[in-house]
Amino acid sequence: MNVRLICISGLLAAMLTTGCGSEVSEKDKTHDYPLDGELRYNHIQAKGTHNSYHIEPELSHPEHRYTHKSLDVQLDNGVRQFELDIHYAEGEGILVYHLPGVDDLTTCEYLTDCLAVIKSWSDRHREHQAPLVLLEIADDYNPIKLTDKYPEIEADILSVFPRERIIIPDEVRGDYPTLGEAIRSEGWPVLADTRGKIIFHAHANGAFRDNYLKAYPELAGALMFVDSSPEDSFAAIMPMNDPIGDAERIASAVREGFIVRTRADVCCTYALENDRTRLEAALASGAHFISTDFPDPVEGIEYYVTIPGGAPCRCNPLTAPDYCTSTDIENWE
Q1: In which region does residue 28 sit, left (phi positive, over 0), alpha (psi from -120 to 50) or beta (all else)?
Q2: What residues have CB less than 8 Å from 42, skipping those under 6 apart?
Q3: What local confidence, expressed as pLDDT, does residue 25 receive?
Q4: 237, 271, 307, 278: which is closest to 47 by C-alpha?
Q5: Chunked in runs of 10, what are the mean pLDDT values of the chain (333 residues)?
Q6: Where do runs of H (alpha helix) occur along 127-261?
Q7: Could you tell me if 48 and 66 are in contact, meaning their C-beta atoms sit under 8 angstroms apart?
Q8: Which of 148, 17, 134, 158 is nearest to 86 (CA)?
Q9: Contact criterion met (CB below 8 Å) for 250 and 240
């Protein structure tokens, strides 16, 4: 694998886990959030990035012609959802890149490197809303599959983030028998309980998801959420990537209380043609995280994604109460 940029060593990632509890202390508070006990995590809408680690290769396919800034800079610029393609290599562990050989440049080589960048930023900005990190099981071209490597994935996560800084399925389920019932009946945690934390989601179905659910029935004891549909008992977070074709499904799932990630564009026709049709559909759909390959202005390209009125998040157009304001969620001032 030809990786050119490495962010932080695994040793530093481990060091960053020490000395940081889950609660946002009084000294870390810079704003008053009077609605933190009323507004819930599913009342927000924020920007995300697709293949968040990606650097355009020298000889690139048209679909690979985009480059993201480092994860901490993305967070500074308002991104609150990441997608990391993960692969397993014997003797190395869990790596982050897109495709072996042809599209493997990355801003952070190891999963622990990527997470350490996010953790360091989180430690400096403890009032942030919880970023959603999709870990895509992207090992179709690798001889060693991640199918049964969930203990290694969870170990890497916990080497960087203490469990109390992670919103886990058990926290959302509470005393309800299933996640789906909990979300429909009570909803996601209030914002006071999500500040300074992070959510991990295993973006996969098939064998990996089957094995994970076998290890953690109804995701009891699990560290990550998994791909789901509203009818699943473990329903919680749902990638629905076509905000036009999936518009009704997205709106229905959002109104039921589930978290939805959709995509504002697919590299790179939308950007090159400044076609905002899909972006506008995504914003109107109520999807909580709108993922893009172009979160910032790029020289020579007019198109890029912003959340209207976001500071950096805005109130969800379908679920948030009328009195919600963007600065109730996260205030950049």
Answers
A1: alpha
A2: 183, 187, 188, 254, 257, 258, 259, 288, 316, 319
A3: 67
A4: 307
A5: 40 40 67 95 98 91 91 98 96 95 95 98 97 94 91 98 98 98 97 98 95 98 98 98 97 98 95 97 98 96 96 96 97 85
A6: 150-158, 169-173, 179-185, 207-215, 247-256
A7: no
A8: 134
A9: yes
Peptide bond preceding 308: is omega within 30 degrees of 0, i.e. cis? Answer: no
Bond into 114 cis (ω within 30): no
Query: For residue 29, what pLDDT is reported?
Result: 73
- The residue written with tokens 């072996």 in the block is 100
Is 200 in contact with 135 (CB distance < 8 Å)?
yes
Amino acid 162 reads P
In the block, which residue shows the tokens 């996560």?
157
Q: What is the largest CA-CA distance in the chain?
A: 53
Report the SS3 class of residue 81. Answer: strand
Give me the torsion for CA of 260, 103, 70, 110, rounded to 10°: 90
> What φ, ψ does residue 271 adopt, rounded to 5°?
-70, -45
Query: Tokens 């064998």 correspond to what residue?
Result: 207
Q: What percent of the chain has pLDDT over 90?
A: 84
CB 247 within 8 A of CB 280: no
Q: How many CB atoms lie within 10 A of CB 305?
A: 24
Q: Are 129 and 86 in contact (CB under 8 A)?
A: no
Summarised one tens digit per residue, pLDDT across range 234-291 is 999 999 999 999 999 999 999 999 999 999 999 999 999 999 999 999 999 999 999 9
Which residue is associated with the tokens 């179709």?
Answer: 140
Distance CA 303, CA 298 (A): 8
Distance of CA 49 to the CA centre of its chain: 8
Burial-class residue 38 by CB neighbours within 10 Å (0-12, 13-18, 19+).
middle
How far apart, in whole angstroms, are the C-alpha atoms of residue 113 and residue 12? Answer: 8
Average pLDDT, rounded, for the chain: 92
Segment holding 297, helix H or strand E: none
